[in-house]
Amino acid sequence: MADEVLSQNEIDSLLSSISSGEMDAEELKQEEKEQKVRVYDFKRALRFSKDQIRSLTQIHENYARLLTTYFSAQLRTHVDISVASVDQVPYEEFIRSVPKMTILNIYSARPLDGRVLMEVSPHVAYGMLDRVLGGKGCSINKIENLTEIETMLMSQLFEKAAVNLREAWSSISEIDPVLEEFEVNPQFLQMVSPNETVIVVSLNTTIGETSGMINICIPHFVLEPIIPNLTVHHRMQTTAKERDPEAYEKLTNNIQLANVDAKVLLGETTINLQQLLSLDSDDVIALHQSIEDPLLMEVNDRPKFYVQPGTHKNKLSVQVLKEWKRGDENE
After folding, report:
1. Structural element, H or E, at residue 263
2. Among residues 222, 205, 227, which one has the least CA distance to residue 49?
């Protein structure tokens, strides 16, 4: 850090204060010798760097997209899930922020030690349950008296969501998450010691007209074996290795064999209903298409080529003249 430069007026004022006795030069020297200290709260020990937090954020942004697709298919309604925040806090602080009665899903993540907690807002959980049972997705707060059927349906919904967690983490580590417990009271849950640092990922969740939060709690010791993987360098290396040349070629060949719908428009015109009802055999309908102009070929209902009609092996055919480009319709 560069030394601060005093102005001439500040120097004169300082000398005047020392001369008049308002300021003691010895006290100034003593203050310089004293070591400056910064308050550090050991209960909120920061054990993850900014780069590691950024990696965890990207992982769970991908997870949020996967969950959105999964729940949209399962519930057949509008679902929007996005990352609101990623923080590191003591486990005790996280548990205090959780409602007294809520939906708690506890996952193992082998081969990693420990467990991962997913806390789902009752509004969101019951909105999901209502959709599964054929409702509109309304939220009803009856968490204290869940029936066995409701508990089973809700746990099955989140058990299948573990596949998305595995896919989201695949770029960092191969894990096999399994739903082990389904709980509603956080007081009965003691995953780690109160002062253990945990990562809390908060997801904004909207199910139909119901909205709430999904919080994912990951203890530090669960992530400790793979912390070296939570770096930009590792992510770049992983991305470079993800493209398997053999798999890429196979995928390309399979895509090339996919069927597409191709059709050629001979022309079009506009007639009124009276003219349509008056049509008879041998009537002629004039199209807005000159016989000298090329025809437009559409692929999956999108313009692709200009073609000219003809025959090939006694079949009606078209010959491609040139590719259609955006803006040609204005010519």
Report:
1. strand 262-265
2. 227
The pLDDT tens digits for 163-192 are: 888 888 887 888 888 888 888 877 777 778
Tens-digit pLDDT profile for residues 222-275: 888 887 777 765 555 555 455 567 777 888 888 888 888 889 888 888 889 988
| Amino acid present at 130 | D
pLDDT at 105 over 80: yes
With a cut of 60, say whether residue 28 has pLDDT above it: no
Q: What is the distance between the alpha carbons of residues 202 and 214, in angstroms, rounded to a whole number? A: 6
Name the nearest CA neighbour of 103 among 75, 72, 128: 128
Sorted by sequence, the CB contacts under 8 Å of residue 195 that are 6+ apart come out as 42, 43, 90, 91, 92
Write down how long the chain is: 331
Domains of the chain: 44-242 (3.40.1550.10), 262-330 (2.30.330.10)
- Contact between 115 and 222 (Cβ < 8 Å): yes
- pLDDT score, position 134: 79
Place of tokens 């548990």: 95
Q: Transcribe 153-220 into DSSP letters.
A: HHHHHHHHTHHHHHHHHTTT---EEEEEEEES-GGG---S-TT-EEEEEEEEEEETTEEEEEEEEEEH
Q: Please list, in sequence order, all residues whose beta carbon lies within 8 angstroms of the beta carbon of residue 321, skipping any fewer than 6 positions away.
A: 294, 305, 306, 307, 308
How many other C-beta atoms are found inside a 10 Å radius of the C-beta of residue 32? Answer: 7
Give the single-character DSSP code of 236.
H
- pLDDT score at 112: 85
- pTM over 0.85? The answer is no
Cβ-contact 305, 324 below 8 angstroms: yes
Q: How far apart are CA 48 and CA 89, in angstroms?
A: 11
Q: How would DSSP label each residue in 71-91?
A: HHHHH-S-EEEEEEEEEEEEH
**Mean pLDDT for the stretch of residues 77-99:** 87
The residue-averaged pLDDT of 112-138 equals 83
